[in-house]
Amino acid sequence: MKYSKKSGNSKVKDLSLAKSGAKNVAWAKDHMKALAQVKKKFEREKPLKDLFVGMALHITKETAFLIETLQAGGAKVAIAGCNPLSTQDDVAAYLANTNAIVYGWKGETTAEYWKNLESVVGQLKAAVDAGFKIATIDDGCDLVSLIHEKYTKLLDHLVVGTEETTTGVIRLRAMEKSGALKCPVIAVNDNKTKHLFDNYYGTGQSTIDGIIRATSTMIAGSKFVVAGYGPCGEGLSKCARGLGAIVSVTEVDPIRALQARMDGFEVVKMSEAATYGDIFVTVTGDINVITLKHIKKMKTGTILANSGHFDVEIDVRNLYKQAKSVEQIRPGLQKINMIGEHFIYLCGEGRLVNLACAEGHPSVVMSLSFCGQALAIEYGIKNAEKLENKVHVLPGKIDNHIATLQLEAIGIGIDKLTAEQEKYLASWQSGT
Ligand SMILES: NC(=O)c1ccc[n+]([C@@H]2O[C@H](COP(=O)([O-])OP(=O)(O)OC[C@H]3O[C@@H](n4cnc5c(N)ncnc54)[C@H](O)[C@@H]3O)[C@@H](O)[C@H]2O)c1
User: What is the enzyme's main class (predicted)?
Assistant: First the structure.
């Protein structure tokens, strides 16, 4: 990998893309009105003064606005991507020209990915030496787990970490359970204003967007198989149905399988779906959900994509090993030739398709998620003395505040409980 230019400490692909990055960031800001309100408050109150934030987040136009919000609060920021294929190079170039330190480009090797995270750790160390408090923002838990594995001295200075996605929260809860977690972490994913909107509406729409950009395939009339019926899988199944697909769902959880059935979807085993599906999307957070055994049963020309956090849901490693040949058909789409005439198409190398092949979620939904991130960092700093080394959830009051900011942004007023209603709802005496 060659970098055409370097700016300050940053390492990005091409600084000449900064102008296009600025336009994309401006578009995002225009659609992130709730976060703009948080930024205004941060400008007034400077709650993040003397704080250095190390981030491992998708480097997108929306993340750029989160960084500006943190900076408005007084923080200094260094960021690496949280996926080798998700960085928007023009946004990285734009950020490298600001006060942020950026390490990331689209198409990093796995070694480069980890080196970039190490560079963020290097900035955190320097910040500690310079007397800053430090915090982390993760999407997938790679940064915090790296610090726990290799840079434990930093943990004494780490006031709070935040986590964006379900898979990261699952890893953190496993760390907490085994006694390995040595700093307080806030599970931003668990905000209602995050997973009920970002995972559900965001992943639903942007996953389809990624598949269409990679393949330009017709969704209407296709047999569309979704593995996993969490908020992401549910949103995706409903989006695909909305576009006219015939949707089947696979699950391992009986409750969610039943929900999918009652929502009107076929619920089948993957071994059965493999025989008839046209498009498959995994969105489970689990490993080897689609294996070679399944792929061998699939029709020639089947399209495979993953929208779960890591590229382990489709067994791509063995798929590449067993392939007769791999052809890059167009950006984000490979034809994998198997034995005989059999082939399948793989989107985004099995990495999350909405970011590898499209731009991630629409800005408006990221505004909600990133209000959660900004307010979680503020909450962590304000409550540093009280927070134990556990996975915490933000108080409901903050979640409601985020929803209120967004309702105001789109000009919607809602009713307020009357005193009589409040009393009624808090009482148990009155029945029929
Ligand atoms: N693409 C994106 O932008 C994006 C956005 C948010 C979350 N995510 C990621 O998507 C994944 C799913 O997120 P979620 O919030 O819906 O998670 P979730 O844990 O609530 O739901 C996952 C579902 O998958 C099911 N599942 C697990 N193993 C399975 C298997 N082998 N076969 C079929 N189903 C299985 C689980 O029972 C569960 O119902 C996570 O990895 C999360 O980090 C991606």
Answer: hydrolase
Cβ contacts of residue 36 below 8 Å, gap of 6+? 29
Cα 200 to Cα 235: distance, rounded to the nearest angstrom: 4
- Specify the DSSP class assigned to residue 189: G
Query: By CB neighbour count within 10 A (0-12 exposed, 13-18 middle, 19+ buried), where does 190 fall?
Result: middle
The residue whose two tokens read 């070694």 is: 111
Q: What is the pLDDT of residues 158-194, one digit of tens each?
A: 999 999 999 999 999 999 999 999 999 999 999 999 9
Please answer whether residues 69 and 41 qualify as being in contact, where contact means their C-beta atoms are separated by less than 8 angstroms. no
Pocket test for ligand 1, best of 166, 255, 271 (most atoms within 8 A of CB): 166
Domains of the chain, earliest start first: 6-195+361-409 (3.40.50.1480), 201-356 (3.40.50.720)
Residue whose token pair is 């910040």:
127
Q: Are 36 and 26 in contact (CB under 8 A)?
A: no
Spatial contact of 267 and 250, defined as CB atoms under 8 Å apart? yes
| Cα dihedral value 20, 24, 30, 32, nearest 10 | -150
For 17, 196, 267, 299, the CA distances from 237, given in Å and listed in that order, are: 36, 15, 12, 21
For the chain, the 3-state helix, strand and coil shares in percent, each to the nearest 5, are: 50, 15, 35
Tell me the backbone φ, ψ of residue 106, rounded to 5 degrees: -75, 130
Rounded CA gap, 342 and 123, in Å? 49
Nearest ligand 1 atom, CA 227: 33
Q: What's the confidence (pLDDT) of residue 8?
A: 60
Burial of 254 (0-12, 13-18, 19+ CB in 10 A): exposed
Q: Which long-range contacts (CB under 8 A, 24 or more apart) does 98-102 make?
A: 98/67, 98/68, 98/71, 99/71, 100/10, 100/67, 100/71, 101/8, 101/9, 101/10, 101/77, 102/10, 102/11, 102/12, 102/59, 102/78
**Number of Cβ within a 10 Å radius of residue 174:** 13
| DSSP one-letter code for 352 | B
Q: Backbone dihedral region of 228: left (phi > 0), alpha (psi from -120 to 50 degrees) or beta? A: left
CA of 249 from ligand 1 middle (Å) equals: 12
What ranges make up the beta strands (E) of 38-119?
A: 51-56, 76-80, 101-103
- The pLDDT score that the predictor gives to residue 68 is 98
Contact 29, 19 (CB under 8 A): no
Tell me the residue type at 168: G
What's the token pair of residue 224?
């569309």
Name the pTM for this structure.
0.95
User: Would the CB of 294 count as within 6 Å of ligand 1?
Assistant: no
